[in-house]
Amino acid sequence: MRARVSLALAAAICFVAWPVLADAGPTCADCHDEIVASMSHNVHMQIRSFEVQGQPVGCQSCHGNGTQHMEEGDPTLIRTFAKKSAEDEQACLSCHHDKGLAEWDASTHAAEGVTCFDCHSIHKAHNPLESCKTCHADTEGLMQLPSHHPVREGKMTCVSCHDPHAATEGALKTHMRVNDLCYTCHLDKEGPFVFEHEPVEESCLICHNPHGTVANNLLVANEPMLCLQCHELHFHAGLVSPDGPVDVGGTERDNPLGRFSMNAAMTTKCTTCHPRVHGSDLPSQTLPGGGRGLTR
């Protein structure tokens, strides 16, 4: 029984590996057997579009014609990608330039001298997103703060919002303003609303840091300090409240916060009274504000 299982397993392995070995050629596998084996499920060893472009599928599609290299054993006679030169990078762009990399030459990464090999590994299993941390350690640090997008939980990745090959500002996946990217997930915040909040219309980044913050909801500062960057405090915040019992609907009740209750109520959390900070279709019951109080 064990012999039958072993034979079946060997047959399955040969079946999976056969297209690779056939395309790679026995000469490549003779010297680079470990690399060929590790590439058995790699798309570069299986895709057939290389043949349409006049390149053989498998090792030679990227490394070039290896006949002379195999005959003489000289590594200089084949493209090894050791220098990570512009010529080496062109081997990648010859196929990928028309497949999502049309903007690469104008991108920030290209301008900074980042190459394909700085982020991608072909022979080894490697998550290119891990390469983001190498250069963007400050952003990685923000994602460890209490309020953050669920990247470290595995529900999102950097490329959920960014296209590292794009030429847009911040390599965002949208070519327009940042709000359009946010609205792909936060559609309820888009509007249009009858009563709009100007900072929201301009940019979500005025109030939010998408990579992580200490304040809740990715806010760049806690309330009321965030709101006070644009708004003044209500004049009620400076009023003194009565210390004794207060008549509430014909019933006298004690004021738990004493003479500072008005100050506490008006300077603690603005969204207690103004919850619709992204916009509202209903007018607020405030005459001086022209119904723009965003209270409901």
Strand order of the largest sheet: 1-2
Distance between the termini: 73 Å
Q: Return the string of H and E elements.
A: HHHHHHHHHHHHHEEH
Largest sheet: 2 strands, antiparallel
Q: Classify the beta-strand content into a percent band.
A: under 5%
Identify low-pLDDT runs. Answer: 1-26
The portion of residues assigned to helices is 25-40%
Record field, number of beta strands:
2
Count of discrete alpha- or pi-helical segments spanning 4 or more residues: 14
User: Which class of secondary structure composition applies to the elements?
Assistant: mainly alpha
Mean pLDDT: 79
Overall 3D shape: elongated
Rg, nearest Å: 31 Å
Descriptive account of the structure:
β1 (246-248) and β2 form a beta hairpin. It contains 14 helices and two strands; from the N terminus they run αααααααααααααββα. The protein has a two-stranded antiparallel sheet. It has a domain at 30-100. It is mainly alpha-helical and 296 residues long.
Summarize the model shown:
This protein is 33% helix and 2% strand.
Question: Descriptors for this entry?
Answer:
296 residues, mainly alpha, 33% helix, elongated, disordered N terminus
Layout: helices, strands, pairs:
Blueprint: H1 2-24, H2 26-31, H3 33-38, H4 49-52, H5 59-63, H6 67-72, H7 86-96, H8 108-111, H9 116-119, H10 130-135, H11 137-142, H12 178-182, H13 198-202, E1 246-248, E2 251-253, H14 261-267
